[in-house]
Every structure is written in structure tokens, then in C-alpha cells.
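Example record used in the benchmark description.
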Amino acid sequence: MKKSIQQFNHSALSLIEHIGLLVIAIATVFAMSSEVMLMLASKTVTLTDLLMLFLYLEVVAMIQRYYTSGKLPVRFPLYIGIVALARYLILDMKSMDEWRLIAITSSILLLAMAILLIRYGHVRYPYLNDESSPSAEKSENTH
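Model output (C-alpha cells):
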């Protein structure tokens, strides 16, 4: 009885997770197509437009990565945060005071350092059952 309840809960949560990811994917594609339509209507493409499209692609890549590996690396949202902050910086740089400019650039630097630290930790101290780690690849190639 307990196992059947756990199995039902697992199945229900998995279904909710897949529906949520599908909604996010559809919304991202819709937002991306809206951005492209705005670029076509204005007949111009700016750096902020390209950064926005890159943000959308990162979200799609994050969803795709989850479906292929069953895992979601923490680095993906950090990459999205860096691009979002860079886009904000580019859009409003002229109207920002120097303290806000320093705060945003410091935030980008902190996110980049966090990515490096996470990546170093993953390479130096991989999970024992992690097939994507470099040490797992080395052990597979040597056998």
C-alpha cells in the first residue's frame, strides 16, 4: 500500500514537472517569436534584441538539458542571470549613477566567480555516480 502511494505521488509529480516544462518551453518560443516580429516590424536589430534572444535560447537549452540528462546544472540559471544583467546594463547605462553601475558589474563578476567555483568543485570533487564528470569519462576510457 505504501509503495503504491509513493509510486502514485512520484508519477503525479513527474507529470506536473513535465507539464510545467512544456508550458515554459511554449511560453519561451512565443516570447522569442514576438521578439523576432518586433525586430522585423522595426527593421532593425540591436544588441539588446540579440541578448534577449540569447536569454530565450538559454531557457530552451536548460529545458533540453534537463530532458537529455535528467539533471539541471546550477550554472544555467547563473548564465541567464549574467546575460540579463548585461542586457540591463547595456539598456540603461547612460541613465545609471556610478554606484548602480558598480553594483551591476560587481554582480556580474560575482556570478561569473560562482560559475567558476561550481565548475571547479564539479571537476575536482565529482559525484560518485555522475557519468558527466571528467573523472568518470577518464575511468571509462581506461577500461
